Amino acid sequence: MLSVSDRDRILEAMADCCAEEGYRATTVDSVLERAGVERESFEALFAGKEDCALAALNKILSETLARIATIDPRSESPNERRVREVETILQLLAMRASFARLGSIEARQAGTPRMRECYEAAVRVLALMMERAGPGAPGGGSSVTARAALGGAEALVRRELAIGGASNLPKLLPDFVYAALVPFVGQREALRQARLAARVAEEG
Amino acid sequence: MDTDRRDALLRAMLDELAHRGYEEMSVERASEVAGITAGEFAAEYRDKDECLFAAYDRLTEAMVEKASVGCDSDEPWPERIRSGLERLLEEVAAQPLMAEVLTRAFPGIRPAAYERYVALLGRFVPFMHEGRDYSEVDEELPGEVELLAVGAAEAIIFGEVDAGRAERLPRMMPEILFSVLVPFMGPDRAADEMRSAAAAT
């Protein structure tokens, strides 16, 4: 009988190995060594390296969605709620930097086609969340607008993760809020929300 | 090794990477294509990685150069961004295989290679600073607004290259332009620029 913690230790080790060596150079052996788990346990849980990486991606994805779902929708305006959502995501990414790197960098740039699909599915969900923010941009309401705005935010996340400053992410909340809103609501309102977000970021 | 032969070697290294992937690529084959002996290679580069990283730096240098020529004029800032973006997209569309190397094949090798990609995006940030003068509000824009604009274009370019549709990028220029300008100018004026770019092409 396998405990839940074996699985968690393996997923954690997979994310950490990928953060250090990259997905390509990561081997099941290095994951096992890091996790301190026997090969039989790994094989009982995962079909191989890719399967394990996909499970790690699903873990960070479902954790993110679960956290967003726990934000109390009452007594908050839609915009405030959006700020809370972005804040929640940033805090989680900062806390789980290795998983965040696996999802946003390795899956996209080094992963197998199935890992990339996982990344793209997550991005589509986030882009849809952003499109809900406004009645449609003057940019013609094209799907490019939301995707591009999200791309700006992603570039910021990846830079922080790549240069090892994941803990800095929550402090950039106002920049993320501005990026998500400006194409849809304009500069004035996006800046106003960014200011509110700065207060939220200070309160922690 | 003279400049022409070094260029040929670096080019052949990138071709190897594009066609065979990092694990399967061969320094010997690349050297043979470029007419470089093993001794000459060893005199210049410690190993495959050192040569490959040099090749990537040269490729990114050429990309930045292409875009900056477009940005280098007396035109107002939005026009310069438009023409820099136009050149960049044409370059990417004309060389889909190198675009793939630029965005995925190389950065995916390992974290140290990915850092070069982050640095490449950073190279476009200075072109954006002047956009702050075009804001419609007095208040200072967020500190990272330049990278937000660069990342917006990168997301679209990466997506099209990755899907094997790099040839569509020049036609998408007006929409991408909108997304680059919007953090600086707001949606209404960025849309004006987008429409005038669409009319001009």
Q: Strand tally of chain B, please?
A: 0
- Top-tier CATH class of the largest domain in chain B: Mainly Alpha
Number of domains of chain A: 1
Percentage of residues assigned to helices of chain B? over 70%
The Cα radius of gyration of chain B reads: 19 Å
* Gyration radius over CA of chain A: 18 Å
Overall average residue pLDDT of chain A: 88
The largest sheet of chain B is: none
- How many separate helices of chain B? 9
Number of domains of chain B: 2
CATH class designation of chain A: Mainly Alpha
* Average predicted confidence as pLDDT of chain B: 94
Can you give a write-up of this model?
The complex is a heterodimer of chains A (204) and B (201). Chain A has one domain (50-203): Tetracycline Repressor, domain 2 (Orthogonal Bundle), CATH 1.10.357. In chain A, 76% of the residues lie in helices and 0% in strands. Chain A has helices spanning 4-21, 28-35, 39-45, 49-69, 78-95, 97-110, 113-131, 143-162, 173-185, 187-203. The mean pLDDT of chain A is 88. With 204 residues, chain A is mostly helical. The longest helix of chain B has 28 residues, at 173-200. The mean pLDDT of chain B is 94. Chain B has helices at 3-24, 27-34, 38-44, 48-71, 77-94, 96-105, 111-128, 145-162, 173-200. Chain B has 2 domains: 1-45, Arc Repressor Mutant, subunit A (Orthogonal Bundle); 49-200, Tetracycline Repressor, domain 2 (Orthogonal Bundle). Chain B starts with a helix and ends with a helix. With 201 residues, chain B is an all-alpha fold. Chain B contains 9 helices and no strands. Helix content of chain B is 76%, strand content 0%. Chains A and B meet through helix 1, helix 6, helix 8, helix 9 and helix 10 of A and helix 7, helix 8 and helix 9 of B.
List keywords for this structure.
heterodimer, A: 204 residues, mainly alpha, Tetracycline Repressor, domain 2, 10 helices, B: 201 residues, Arc Repressor Mutant, subunit A, 9 helices, 0% strand
